[in-house]
Amino acid sequence: MKQAEIKQFGLENLKVIEVPDPKNLGPTDVLVRLRAASLNYRDSLVVEGKYNPKFPLPLVPCSDGAGDVVDIGKDVTEWKVGDKVLLTFAPKWIAKEATHAEIRHTIGGPLPGTLRELAIVPETGLVRMPHHLNYEEAATLPCAALTAWSGLFGYSQLKPGEFVVVQGTGGVSIFALQFAKLMGAKVILTSSSDDKLERGKTLGADYLINYKEIKDWGKEVRNITNKVGADHIIEVGGAGTLEQSIAACRPFGVIHLIGILAGRSGEINLLPAVMNNLKIQGLVVGGRKAFIEMNQAIEQSGLKPIVDKVFPLEKSVEAIQYLRSGSHFGKIVITI
C-alpha cells in the first residue's frame, strides 16, 4: 500500500512510499481503506517536529480520515464490511472527560496517521460517516468540527440569540460559524481579508470586522453588542489575540481557547478576565460520544463542510505548504 511518512522531521522529508499491507487483525480490530484525509495546523507542526519532537519516527502524519471498512476481527459487532467510517483522533477517548493518557493517545502522532491507504483501527476508534457527505467532506470532521462542537455544546451550551465571535476562516472557525447559525446565534467574524469576510457573510456571519483595519476589535465587538460583550469567543490566535478576546467578552462569558496561531506565550493582562468572571476553556477535539452526537446533528441539518482545495496523496507537501500560506477558507483535503 501507499503511505506518506517522515523518517526525519521537516516537510522536505515527507515522502510517499510503498509498504506492505497491514496484517494481524486483532479480534476487536477493523481494517479501513482510507479515502481522504484533511489537514489541521497541528499536522504542519508535527511534520516539523515542533509539536512534539519526541514523537517516534518514522511517522505517518495527519489526524483526520474517512474511508470504508474492508475487514473486521472475529469479535467486532459494531461494524460490517462496506460501512463508511471516520477515524477518531484519540481512539481511547470515549466519554466527555478523559485521562491524560487517553488524550495523548492520538493518531498522526504518536500513533500512525491517516496519510495511508490502509489502517487497522480498534472498533471503538471509528464513528459512522454522515450519509449525505462524500469522503472529502466527511474527512474534515474528526478534529476541526468536533473541536468547535465541543466548545459550543459540550463544555458550554450555546443558546439562540447569543453572540459568538469567530476569529479567522480556518477549519475550526468556519465550523463554529456554521454550528452557531444552526443554533440561531449571531456571529461576529474577524479576518484580515475583506474577501474572506464576504465569503463568511454568505455562510451567515452577521457582523464583519477586518482586524487589520480595526486593531482594537474587542472594543468594536462591545459596540456591536450594545456595550454588553459577546457570549462566546472562538479564540484561535492564542497569546497574540487573547487580550482582545478578553475585552470582547461579556461578564461570565466563555473564551474557547483553541489555537496559538498568533503566539503561544506573551505578556497578557488577565485582570479583566478575573474582574468579569470570564471562563477560559482550553479545547482539544473531544470524545467519541460527542463525535457521534455531532454527526447526528450534521446529518439532521444537512450541514455541508466547506472544502477549500483538494490535493492527491502525491501532493501532500504542496497541501501542507498551502495550509501554511493561510490563504485557505475552510478545510484542505488530501485524497488517498
UniProtKB/TrEMBL annotation:
Residues 10-334 form the Enoyl reductase (ER) domain. Gene3D superfamilies: Medium-chain alcohol dehydrogenases, catalytic domain, NAD(P)-binding Rossmann-like Domain. One of its GO terms (molecular function) is oxidoreductase activity. It comes from the Bacteria. CDD domains: MDR7. Pfam families: ADH_N, ADH_zinc_N. SMART domains: PKS_ER (SM00829). InterPro entries: ADH-like_C, ADH-like_N, ER, GroES-like_sf, NAD(P)-bd_dom_sf, Zinc_ADH-like. PANTHER family: PTHR45033, ZINC-TYPE ALCOHOL DEHYDROGENASE-LIKE PROTEIN C1773.06C. This is NAD(P)-dependent alcohol dehydrogenase. The lineage of its organism: Bacteria, Pseudomonadati, Spirochaetota, Spirochaetia, Leptospirales.
